[in-house]
User: Fold this.
Amino acid sequence: MAPTSINRWLEGPLLSPFVNEATFDFYARRIHPQWRLKRVVCRVTEVRPVSASMRAITLAPNSNWQGFQPGQHVQVFVEIGGIRHTRTYSLCNAPHEARSLTIAIKRQPGGLVSTHLHDHLAVGDLLEIGQAWGETRRLASPDQPRLFIAGGSGITPVMSHLQDLAATRPSTDVVLMQYAPSEDEIAFQRELALLERTMPGFRRFVLITRDHGDRPGVGRFCADHLGRAVPDASKRSALVCGPHALVEAVRSIWQERAYASPISCESFSPPEPVDSEAKPVQLSFDRSGMRVTGRSGRSLLEQAEASGLRPASGCRMGICFTCSCQKRSGTVRNRLTGLVSSEPDELIRLCVSDPLSDVAIDL
Amino acid sequence: MSQHRVLSHEEVESLGHEFDALRLEVIQDLGESDARYIRRIRTTVRLTELLGRSLLMLGFFPPTVLLGTLALGLSKILENMELGHNVMHGQFDWMNDPEFNGKTFEWNHSCPADFWRKTHNFEHHTYTNIMGKDKDLGYGLLRLFPAQRWKPFFLGQTLYAFLLATFFDIGVAIQDLKLGRVFAGRANKEELDALLPVFWKKLRIAYTRDYVIFPLLAGPHAPAVLVGNFLANLIRNYWTFAIIVCGHFTQTEVFPPSVLANETRGQWYLRQIHGSSNLTGSKLFHVMSGNLSHQIEHHLFPDIPSNRYAGLAVKVRALCEKYGLTYHTGHFGRQLATVFYRIARYAFPNGRVPEARSVPV
Assistant:
């Protein structure tokens, strides 16, 4: 019997009350290293560099993987020193490649997880991931001309859209504006060059932002770039992906010009705190009996960790709720929503909560 | 009754700070070796269960029945105490591993994990040894301290204790249903209606597993499996009962609810020391007791991984000496005898036994 059908059988109404996931996984992984009841465990099938600091990793998931749509992301779980860390990466292949998925990981200077993955992950290793998540966009018409604006590692979800278009509608009119700080940081050169050959309607503009020797950089995204590369931007369904600043710059131009086309923004660094000015606040971590002077404009998770505490945490960007905990008193602002919570005993996510006043939390 | 020096307010607070510092020191040091420890316990639980259940399936051959029962009993004890109890305290939450997440962990036991998280983690650990608040203080069936009011009901408590120990798994599960209130006609019907289905479901699963599914899997050897499972559960129940009653019902003290008013963190720590007692023994004994043999350390730091208690005990004991506090500890047999004596003695009114002092904390 194939593992899939055993899983389905065990998850049925008759047996599921008697099946403990942890117990099942304990034995299943000894029969086949990737077999689990619900968790998605992948085997690394390929690791290749796609720019000076970025590696694409191709994974073969187990049968619990439910597939994805272009532009979606996955959480990747990596255990380092007994602690499981979670990072989110965008999928960058086409969804129709059913039993295979690719993510691209940029080595972040001083980044614990990205450094670990760059230095240690090899073909044949196992890697656990979550199910794909993230909004998928429906176009008014599938033939609508497209515009992608990608900054740095923001190219990764765009790759998935492009690969998908190449496979399903290769004649679509597509413009890509790809920003990179230097020549060797232009990711997916080979793949994009191949797409230019196979998709007649695909035009690609590479913009190097920084100066290199006597070649001046073009600087960050501005209206001038847009006007020269895509005079018909208003007609296109646009998607921008990259650092927060790029997303904001594009958004404000679209707003200014009242472009009708919808614009999807997917930015992977959590939004910056609203208060640039930091004022000192008193933080009490009740369960630990600790009172420290913290500051506004820095997440409670970071400040708790800086005080030597070890709260459970996951994605660090407000998605997974692993770090949620009771706030006893005080006012915090949610970075994602901008909402302010001042009621006592509210559940807050530490990773996206900035204190605005003295705060007491049950940690 | 132990003799404690009465500490000044300043001393209590500085003691509190010293314990906070101890806690932080350990928390900052948590890492790979602690993760390896709990996984090794998990592996031992699974493999002893596999061994026990396999041996019992071989039928009524005395050596296999005996070994199988012992292995399964060992697995149940470890799963109950060192794995389940400690993980559900959130001791391993910092690992971020869903398998060891204290909020979602579910154990192979008659008591739903959510009941336990409430009666044990919250009620017992917050209100340790406070009369009327800490339901673990005699489970509403036993009178263990002279300060508890005597009723004729307690005359039968030697029998109740025996029954409670025998069916301790169910006893633990029933605790959250607050049956005492039901019998007194003061039950909160809504609350009870919400809890009962959860209670029955978990109990049904636990009993179906041990008394229907595994016997059926053994085919003609079902009787051996039935007997082995019953005995393994009995071993687990007696053992856990014995360890747990030794944690708080020995030379320890009880408190009136009035101590809770404006109790500071230092005073809370002090109450845990006054109200808990340790057991001495080998490394294996500590693991088998779920490290509840380090009851004092567990009550001071319920969310620190249990494998750290032995190391902490040395420092806690030194602090107790520094502040002139009695560090209750003793051999398992002696402590258990103390508890049995209490059960037998306080079934009867106090007589000339002096009222317990309430400790000025």
In short: Helices of chain A lie at 3-10, 21-31, 112-120, 155-168, 189-198, 223-229, 244-256, 300-306. The interface with chain B takes residues 17-18, 20, 22-23, 25-27, 79, 81-86, 287-290, 308-314, 322 of chain A (CB under 8 Å). Residues 3-129 of chain A form a domain with the Elongation Factor Tu (Ef-tu); domain 3 fold (CATH 2.40.30.10). The two ends of chain A are 47 Å apart (CA to CA).
